[in-house]
Write a sequence for this structure.
């Protein structure tokens, strides 16, 4: 494989996990935070960026742990426990680092940082990477997290606009947001043949 | 944090509350990831519900048992280890005994570790309540979650595939296909959109809207009743006044 | 307050309220490790119980998979690992008996391949051999967790399994292209591995064979290669056709292979004649690594001076005996496939009771067009058939004709305008003419091949043709254009008959 074709494959892998098999709208990871945080655009951006950071780091750390420590020792069944502990520690670490170097950022992220530990997307991506090569797992991590960022920002801008409109009272708020998500999911469906 | 002592009535409340009034999926909006992902098939939803029950009940009970021993500083990692252990147990058992369910649920079985409901109940209830109460609370939440999953999956499977397929996941059920909307490839009234991700969002949104409508209806009734009572009181007062004046 | 009291009790220092910091942290750490340790122990114990069950499930799945690939598979060999292959993990030999003596084919077990971020596939594919050539077998999906699983399976896997071949293998554009491409790579890798390790990559020197055996220059595009199966030595048959119609063989080459340990012989031999009356041709040794190679070559020279079955009577020792077996096996293969499919074999369909046939007269560039009906007739060759063995009394002439049609019906001048359709056909047939050169009698016609949409009508018309039929009779049938084409060929044949 030439360098350009490897790079192209990498880009395509990112594209496919970002848009075509989107993390929230196709694979259903991270919906709790998706619905809960997207009331304001600003907090969505913050959450999305934090998620990008954490997912990439978590994938980077956990792939070698699985392939070089757990599997050779025959302890593959401990993967879930190890992963979640790694993620929890990573989030704590990231929190400490941000607190030290940028207290303003830490303040604006607020409670969202510890919330990332329970974000299905992080654990989901790391579990998916079990059978991937290193390149594919990093592509998966990058694509998934950026896809999350794109979708949550899009979603929150729509929700922001929607909140100003006078909807029928039963549909106001969450139900309408869910229908919006459904429409976004339908739009994504249309991309499914794109990289074929 | 003081331990709450519960009376018989409170026990009943602990169990019944989460099933409808404080339903973890529809009211508290927790645990949405599996709810949208595994509900394309009724059998899988039931399977997920059962496994979820094992995890929630097990970890709640254990955490409640150990609540006086686990120091505050290491609460979170300790809970995580306990929950992750139960999830891994459930994963191994299902891979061995119901491999079809294991494959169907896939990653979402592992994601029970970070399921907001499980962690939420541990933090909010199990760590400050007795074992029996925690058990009831967990059972109630699981039942509520199972019912919620069932509602969504019944709609999605019938509308989305047109048939109800049994026996694909549980080996002890004979394989049956019950046609509801789809009788053959030419006589097919199903709407495949509901089997896709978009459909999951739609069903969830519609159910939420129904619940909101119900809540509003209740509120309106209350308001009307209040107004009626206030009117009646005012009328009675007026009447009394008139009567008093007349005297 | 209650909690602090509890803490005190636990740490067994009832008198102090503030304890040494490190003791506190030690206890905290200790409890966490205890919890972790118990959980690890519990899981390891459970793994000991469920591990074997999971393995057994997977093995059952594997066996079901083997049966899906080879229906009569009873046992497989131990897996042989494949190194340095991105797609394949190992292969098994599949046997149809428990005793593992009857080899059916090979089963290749792929690795678990992740398809971008759509999920994983893990497949087993069967490759068996026909002679030394790899034959694509069915595929069994051990794991398929693609998000578009259904499209993948119905669009690519099922068509392939219904007919494993190069065409179905290559049809990856099915709405599930990534998954199909991944599976295509697995299957191709398996076939390549098989060819490299168990197959035959020998390139037959056809041009040299043709020169040695037939004394002719090779015309590559008039040769068809077929694999022969169920023969000890015979591997392939090369059919040589007389013209571009690819109908009518004039000779066949059968290639054979012998190999035992380090000895090997490859021999190619020519045949003509029918399955009951085999005509032996010369032979050529294309490769030989035996101790008595000189004796072998000497024998072949003697044989080629006078080819025939009796020449093998003296081949009794060493490689000569083996050569004899190879030649007889080749003859059997030739006969089993029906012998030489020459055009002359069909003569008795239209000319009964003839005693001899002349050599063919080959035409070049003899065509006749009928633009009103979009037909082009070509005459390829003709023979004279004689009623006596001395070839003095000509009974009839037989012409090999071809009619090709490529037209949109109706052509404007046709008063009978049918619903427009595109007619494309290619019919090769024989015409027997006898009698007066200026007004010949049509003894009959016979279809050799036909690829038209009106196949049955045309076949019946040609095979049932007799002299009483008239050209006007075709108008108003369901196949006017095609039958007009047949008449065009007849016109050309008649003009050639008269011109001689």
């Amino acid at each position: 494989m030439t360098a350009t074709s490897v790079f192209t494959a990498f880009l395509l892998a990112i594209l496919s996990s970002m848009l075509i098999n989107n993390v929230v709208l196709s694979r259903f990871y991270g919906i709790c935070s998706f619905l809960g945080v997207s009331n304001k655009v600003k907090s969505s951006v913050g959450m999305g960026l934090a998620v990008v950071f954490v997912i990439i780091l978590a994938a980077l750390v956990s792939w070698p742990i699985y392939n070089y420590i757990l599997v050779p020792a025959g302890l593959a069944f401990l993967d879930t426990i190890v992963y979640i502990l790694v993620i929890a520690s990573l989030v704590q670490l990231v929190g400490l680092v941000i607190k030290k170097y940028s207290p303003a950022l830490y303040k604006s992220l607020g409670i969202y940082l510890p919330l990332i530990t329970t974000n299905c997307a992080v654990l989901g991506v790391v579990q998916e990477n079990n059978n991937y090569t290193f390149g594919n797992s990093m592509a998966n991590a990058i694509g998934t997290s950026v896809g999350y960022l794109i979708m949550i920002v899009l979603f929150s801008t729509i929700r922001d606009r929607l909140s100003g409109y006078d909807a029928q009272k039963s549909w106001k708020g969450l139900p309408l947001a869910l229908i919006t998500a459904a429409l976004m999911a339908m739009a994504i469906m249309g991309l499914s043949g794109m990289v074929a | 944090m003081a331990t709450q002592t519960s009376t018989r009535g409170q026990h009943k409340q602990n169990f019944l509350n989460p099933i409808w009034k404080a339903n973890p999926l529809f009211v508290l909006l927790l645990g949405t990831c599996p709810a949208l992902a595994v509900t394309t098939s009724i059998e899988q939803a039931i399977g997920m519900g059962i496994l979820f029950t094992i995890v929630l009940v097990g970890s709640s009970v254990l955490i409640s048992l150990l609540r006086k021993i686990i120091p505050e500083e290491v609460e979170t990692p300790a809970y995580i280890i306990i929950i992750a252990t139960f999830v891994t147990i459930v994963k191994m058992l299902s891979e061995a005994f119901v491999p079809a369910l294991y494959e169907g649920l896939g990653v979402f079985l592992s994601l029970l570790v970070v399921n907001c409901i499980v962690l939420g109940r541990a933090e909010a209830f199990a760590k400050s309540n007795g074992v029996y109460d925690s058990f009831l609370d967990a059972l109630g939440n699981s039942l509520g979650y199972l019912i919620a999953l069932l509602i969504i999956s019944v709609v999605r499977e019938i509308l989305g595939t047109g048939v109800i397929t049994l026996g694909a996941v549980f080996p002890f059920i004979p394989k049956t296909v019950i046609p509801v909307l789809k009788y053959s490839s030419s006589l097919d009234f199903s709407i495949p959109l509901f089997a896709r991700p978009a459909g999951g969002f739609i069903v969830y949104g519609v159910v939420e809207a129904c619940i909101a409508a119900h809540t509003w209806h209740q509120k309106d009734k209350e308001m009307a009743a209040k107004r009626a009572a206030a009117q009646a009181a005012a009328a009675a007062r007026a009447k009394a006044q008139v009567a008093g004046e007349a005297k | 307050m209650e909690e602090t009291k509890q803490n005190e009790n636990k740490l067994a220092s009832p008198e102090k309220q503030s304890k040494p910091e490190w003791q506190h942290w030690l206890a905290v750490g200790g409890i966490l490790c205890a919890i972790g340790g118990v959980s690890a122990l519990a899981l390891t114990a459970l793994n000991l119980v469920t591990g074997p069950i999971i393995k057994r499930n997977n093995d059952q799945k594997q066996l079901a998979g083997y049966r899906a690939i080879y229906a009569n598979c009873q046992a497989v060999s131990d897996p042989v690992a494949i190194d340095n292959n991105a797609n394949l993990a190992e292969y098994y030999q599949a046997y149809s008996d428990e005793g593992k003596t009857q080899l059916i084919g090979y089963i290749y077990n792929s690795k678990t391949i992740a398809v971008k971020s759509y999920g994983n596939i893990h497949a087993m594919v069967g490759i068996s051999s026909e002679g030394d050539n790899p034959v694509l077998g069915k595929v069994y999906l051990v794991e398929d967790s693609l998000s578009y699983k259904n499209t993948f399976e119905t669009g690519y896997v099922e068509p392939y399994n219904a007919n494993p071949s190069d065409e179905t293998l290559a049809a990856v554009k099915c709405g599930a292209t990534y998954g199909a491409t991944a599976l295509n790579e697995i299957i191709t890798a398996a076939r390549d591995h098989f060819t490299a390790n168990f197959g035959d990559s020998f390139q037959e020197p056809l041009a040299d064979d043709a020169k040695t055996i037939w004394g002719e220059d090779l015309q590559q595009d008039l040769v068809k290669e077929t694999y022969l199966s169920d023969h000890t030595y015979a591997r392939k048959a090369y059919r040589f056709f007389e013209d571009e119609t690819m109908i009518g063989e004039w000779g066949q080459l059968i290639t054979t292979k012998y190999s035992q340990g380090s000895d090997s012989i490859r021999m190619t031999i020519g045949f003509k004649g029918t399955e009951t009356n085999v005509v032996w041709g010369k032979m050529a040794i294309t490769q030989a690594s035996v101790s008595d190679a000189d004796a072998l070559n000497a024998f072949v020279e003697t044989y080629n001076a006078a080819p025939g079955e009796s020449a093998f009577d003296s081949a009794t020792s060493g490689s000569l005996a083996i050569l004899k077996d190879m030649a007889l096996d080749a003859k059997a293969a030739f006969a089993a496939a029906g012998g030489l499919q020459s055009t002359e074999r069909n003569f008795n369909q239209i000319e009964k009771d003839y005693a001899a046939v002349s050599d063919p007269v080959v035409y070049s560039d003899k065509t006749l067009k009928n633009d009103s009906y979009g037909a082009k007739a070509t005459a390829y060759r003709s023979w004279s058939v004689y009623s006596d063995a001395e070839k003095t009394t000509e009974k009839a002439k037989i012409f090999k004709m071809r009619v090709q049609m490529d037209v949109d019906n109706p052509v404007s001048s046709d008063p009978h305008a049918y619903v427009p359709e595109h007619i494309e056909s290619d019919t090769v047939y024989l015409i027997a003419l006898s009698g007066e050169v200026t007004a010949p009698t049509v003894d009959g016609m016979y279809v050799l091949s036909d690829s038209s949409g009106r196949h049955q009508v045309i076949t019946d018309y040609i095979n049932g043709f007799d002299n009483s039929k008239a050209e006007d009779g075709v108008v108003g049938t369901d196949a006017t254009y095609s039958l007009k084409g047949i008449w065009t060929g007849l016109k050309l044949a008649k003009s050639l008959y008269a011109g001689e």
The radius of gyration of chain A is 18 Å. Chain A has a mean pLDDT of 82. Chain A touches chain C through 23 residues (CB under 8 Å).
